[in-house]
Automatic annotation (TrEMBL):
<dbReference type="InterPro" id="IPR013784">
    <property type="entry name" value="Carb-bd-like_fold"/>
</dbReference>
<dbReference type="GO" id="GO:0030246">
    <property type="term" value="F:carbohydrate binding"/>
</dbReference>
<keyword id="KW-1133">Transmembrane helix</keyword>
<keyword id="KW-0472">Membrane</keyword>
<keyword id="KW-0812">Transmembrane</keyword>
<feature type="transmembrane region" description="Helical">
    <location>
        <begin position="6"/>
        <end position="30"/>
    </location>
</feature>
<protein>
    <recommendedName>
        <fullName>Carboxypeptidase regulatory-like domain-containing protein</fullName>
    </recommendedName>
</protein>
Amino acid sequence: MEEKKISPGVVIVGGLVLGAGAALGAAYLLTRAAPPGPPPPPPPGTANLYGLVTNAITGDTLSGVPIAIDGLYDVTEYGYFAFTELELKRYTGTVTAEGYEPYSIDIVLDEERNYELDIALVPETVPPPEYPEVDQATCPYCSDTFYAPKALEKLFEHVLEK
């Protein structure tokens, strides 16, 4: 078996690369904001409403999302929102974010406490593609031919079934 020597320079460079990668990873974890959790207990006669807004599919928190409850507004930071010292009553909350379906909820705050409301926004569905109209389309795999109307749509469905 042949013995190979490793140059000290290779070890140092490799160590520096690994060390830099670990430092970047640690910096990311340290700077990534964790949700602050519940606010302090509300003053007598009021309630607090707080929570996280996330993507319903990925679970990722969504920053910069506007939230409204009966004329009061907040914008999420790292997905977190909070409304403090709210009157005890019924509220209607709405959340709208570009690329997501609108969200609306009735909220009843009837006790002096913190209420947690986590909201999972559903991404908007992508509309199906529109196919240009052609008189006929032939399958490149089996030579089946499809005719108008919707020749291309029929062809694509045929290919997907194969």
